[in-house]
User: What shape does this take?
Amino acid sequence: MGISQIRRYETDKSTPSLDATIKLVKAIGVSIDEMVFDKATAIASNKIIDRELLEQFEMISYMDEEERNLVKKILEGVIVKNQVEKLLKPKPEKPWSQRFREITDRLAQGAKDYPQDDIDKIIDEAVASVSKKSYARF
Assistant: This one.
């Protein structure tokens, strides 16, 4: 679809066919509701990809207010549980060699403006300090 054709749609000089509308909504990632109406009045969100879930939400919308509120509380509980599990789930630890490489790369980046003699002196002092600790083995 050409830009000039899209401009005609935007200025109401032309109306897209159903096929053109479908191509447009797929290209920009919105629902037809959002394309035809605005986001505030759209019925379905383009973010709900699971068709069965979308149909379930539609059925819930026909329930009485008390039942809808109950479903909302259940959903909220499941969502909070999922978020907490994500936060508490241990992150996979990188191998020490990769962590060491990242640290040395950051140090090298931060030290790029210092003379090599100063860097060597700081490294020697750090090694001497660490080697004095009982857990260090050099």
The longest helix spans residues 65-88.
